[in-house]
Colanic acid biosynthesis protein WcaH (Paraburkholderia bryophila), 150 residues
Amino acid sequence: MLTEMDFLDIVRLTPLIAIDLIVSDHEGRVLIGHRRNRPARGTWFVPGGRIHKDETLDTAFARIADAELGIARLKRSSARFEGVFEHHYSDNFADEPDVSTHYIVLAYALTLASSASIGRPDQHSGYLWLTPAELLARADVHENTKAYFR
């Protein structure tokens, strides 16, 4: 396991690879969470997380879906690949000055049959289901999330 200092060196020197989950319900609304963690703390964002070293995409997808949504054993094959995106942040997880964060993000879209009891309070302080138009109209939704709907 990485120490905080080792991970900060990685963030300082390289891009991180991540998966974002663009989760919709049967009404076409999209799930966004209010971020507790840096970067992008305090903004509304789609759920997601970084891929770990030596972790397959399928394993990472299932782990991230469980950690971010509380859905165990979700298969990557149940989602539609939306493409590769870049996310740049001026800050970092440790709030270390002059260290930006750069993500290469694999975006996957999926529709859930039920929107009941989705989410993990340790990751987000709240959740909203918004239509893409509502999401795009809000100033507190992060630009990197809005990019999925433009």
User: Anything to note?
Assistant: The mean pLDDT is 93.
